[in-house]
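Hello forum,

I keep getting stuck at the same step: I have a sequence, I want structure tokens, and every attempt I make locally crashes halfway through. Rather than fight my setup again tonight, could one of you with a working pipeline run this one for me? It's a single chain of 144 residues.
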Amino acid sequence: MSETNMRKYCLISILLLLVTGYVHAQKIEFKKVSPKEFHSLIEEKNNHLLIDVSCEIECQAGKIPGAICAETSETLFSILDTTPSSRSVLVYCKFGKRSQKACWLIKEKYPHKVYTLKGGVKLWIENGFTVDSAVENKSQDTSY
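Reply #2:
Ran it on my machine without issues. Output:
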């Protein structure tokens, strides 16, 4: 193979990899929303699944009413395996970092429409929204 043909082959290979990566990245989409928008989604959509991906202690300290705790990816996947793809998935955690990672995992494997809460439950509380707590008198505590 000539050097010119080899360069063309390499260039085409690189372009194919870039296009494949771009298409893959386009498939993996989820929306980051403010606490107000997240609350509206909870209130307006009856066809959603609300998931807290915080650790168990954080879930006990305070979770958004109606949320299911899914501390591990195995738990998250077992929940989503039985959830119709027509249901939206609303995901959050304490600060918003783990929920973004969870959204990437969800979109890799499932076709659901996915939303994550910007700033996590901490910002949710700071914006005046309530949480349920398994720990007495901690429902408005932002120090956990």
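The mean pLDDT is 82. If your local run keeps crashing, start a new thread with the error log.
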